[in-house]
Each structure stands twice: as C-alpha cells, then as structure tokens.
# Entry
Amino acid sequence: MNTQTDTELSPADVDNQQSQKLTDSSEIGNQILDKLDHLQSGLDSLGDIFEQRLTYDKEKEKAFDLLYTELQALKENSAFDSVKSLYLDLILLLDRVENIKESITDDKIENRSDSIKNILTSVSEEVLEILLRQQIEVIQTVSGTPFNPSCQKAIQTQETDVESENNRVFSIVRRGFHYGNRILRPEEVIVSKYHRT
# Structure
C-alpha cells in the first residue's frame, strides 16, 4: 500500500499552497498600496493646508504693512495740519519783510537804508531757514517755463506776439511754498498769452 505521510504533499496541494501564498501576498501588497495611497493623500492634504497657511500669512503681512503705512501717513498729515496755519503765518511774515525791504528807497533815510535792508534781509533769511528746517520749501520757477496750474496761480496775463511764449511764466509776483507734494501756497505768476498782431 502506497500511502502519503503528513509531510509529503501532492503536487496539487503544493500548487494550492503556492497559489494561496501568492493570493495572501497579493492581498498584503494591495493593503500596503491602499495604506500608501491613504498616506499620500494625507500628505497632499497637509501640503495644501501648509500652502494655504503660507499664502494667508503673506496676505496678512501685506495687509498689516499697508495699514501701518496708511497710519503713518495719517499721523504725519495730522501733525502737519495742526501747525499748517503757523507755517502760513511765517510765510506771510516773510512776504511782509520782503515788501518792506523793497520799499525802502526814501532819500531821507538813505544813509540808514543799507543797514535797515541788511537787517530785513537777515530776518528774511532766518524765516526761510525756519521753514526749510520744517521741510517747507520755496517753489522754484524761472521766467519762461511752462505755466503749471498744480503749483502756480495766474493772477494776470501779459500779451505776447511770440507764439512759443504762449502759456509760459512771464514773471513771478509772489513765491509759492510746498511741503513734500502738498502745496501750502501756490506761486503767483503773470502768464504770457499769445496774441496775433
């Protein structure tokens, strides 16, 4: 009698065991792939969250920078507006001193007129220095430049028969002043107007 022992397997049994092992390995591989896919989707989700958070932080930082800049500008404007009238009064004082200096021509005070003019010139220069220290500057224009209504005020016109001189500054009547981009007082000018003869 030919009987198989427990340790011996038939070829069909061996094939079944190998097939079972392959099936088990395939299932384990599928489970591992499923776990890896799940991990990958979790990592992708975390990457998206980090990217959104970084974008949010950048936008928040930009917003804070903008708010800080606007607050700083508002603070500067507020400080300037509180002393603007003082600056305008200093400018008027400067005009007054210049007018007095120009009007001193009387022959009776001729011997003292030079010393008076020197004193007035000194006062005028000191007032200009005070304004400059406060970042208030004279609008610098020369005759013959184009009229600029954003910083100049035409108070009179002068006819000209030269077409290229049309709408150009003929002369400066009163100085203008600016603080940064803000005009405190426009420069008062006479503007040439072309008139065909």
In short: The mean pLDDT is 84. The chain has two helices and six strands. The first strand starts at residue 136 and ends at 138. Strands lie at 136-138, 152-160, 169-174, 177-179, 182-185, 187-194.
